Amino acid sequence: MLPKKLKKGDLVGLVAPSNYTDKEKEILLNNAIKIVEGFGLNVKKGKHITTKNKYGTSAGTPEERAADINKMFADKDTKMIWCVQGGVTANEILELLDYDLIKKNPKIFMGLSDNTVILNAINKKTGLITFYGPDAKAGNKDEYFDSEYSHQEFQKRLMRGSGEIVKLSDWKCVRKGKAKGKIMGGHLGCLLKLAGTEYWPDLNNSILALEGYHADIRTTQWRLAQLKQMGVFGQLAGIVIGFVYGFDKDSQLDADGNRVYFEDLVLEVTKEYDFPILKINEFGHKCPCTILPIGGMAELDAENKEFKIKKCVD
């Protein structure tokens, strides 16, 4: 199910399914709002964006966070719902979302990081294509909606419906091959929060997009091993690896002092498979971000370093 693309004058609703927005980050949020308003869009904030729950871990209770999302889907004037930021507790709200309401009111839903769980859950429960894209924060070089690249990708994907991904980096063929399939995934660790639940995505014939934030070798090893033990790699058509901050910004070294990359670990754990693997740097944490449609179709040619998104908005 495709949401409708944005047009000038449309209303974008901001929600916080996971972490709350403090005063410092509210400045960054307001900067992002100004940028989006410059695209000709209007913006409104959900009720609980700055609410802090009693533990200081989330933007209010699970019920409050879910209510903000449900209200945005129910509001006929809201054409896009954008998650302000990630965190750790987005999975608390999954059973509180009104999936029948969402299915009857399809619209663009975008988030990053911990919102991986919501993006994949909504797609699983409703068939609606969701979007893995930058946080609604700008004004700090380490944030995600600061670059002109991210602004252009937002307008291109969500307002014009283009599937082109402009290359900012030298893409790397990790394993040759071609594939067609629906894009699934997001942040590897957050995706695994869905394991064993009714919200785990259907990964058959999919192109699994993977990225990470403070990832290291041992953490990545156990996460990839879990995917293997779940039978995930036998289902995939291909893998696209994004910018993995812990490996691509920081350096991870083996016991002999040699640098190790995230894609090295993926290639090793999938050595008995032959699906293509492509490494790009245009989605992830603290990098200029393109926007990937979760559940949207794509074509991958790793040897020729091509990754093309098919139609994902009406």
Report on this model:
The strands form 3 sheets. This protein has a 7-stranded mixed beta sheet with strand order 6-12-9-8-7-14-15. A 6-stranded mixed beta sheet has the order 2-1-3-4-5-13, sandwiched between helices. The chain has 2 domains: 11-159, Murein tetrapeptidase LD-carboxypeptidase, N-terminal domain (Rossmann fold); 172-309, Glucose Oxidase, domain 1, CATH 3.50.30. The protein is α/β, with parallel strands linked by helices and 314 residues long. Strand 10 and strand 11 form a beta hairpin. Helix 7 runs parallel beside helix 9. The chain has helices at 23-38, 62-74, 99-104, 116-126, 148-159, 188-191, 217-229, 245-248, 262-269, and strands spanning 11-15, 42-45, 78-83, 108-111, 130-132, 172-175, 178-187, 206-212, 238-244, 252-253, 259-260, 277-284, 292-294, 297-301, 306-309.
> Do you know the CATH architecture of the largest domain?
3-Layer(aba) Sandwich
How many discrete structural domains?
2
**Biggest pleated-sheet summary:** 7 strands, mixed
Please identify the top-level CATH class of the largest domain. Answer: Alpha Beta
Beta-strand fraction estimate: 15-25%
N→C terminal distance: 9 Å
Q: What does the radius of gyration come to?
A: 18 Å
Count of beta strands: 15
Task: Give me the number of helical elements.
Answer: 9
Low-confidence stretches: none
State mean pLDDT (0 to 100 scale). Answer: 96
- Give the SSE string: EHEHEHEHEHEEHEHEHEEHEEEE
Which sequence of strands runs across the widest sheet?
A: 6-12-9-8-7-14-15
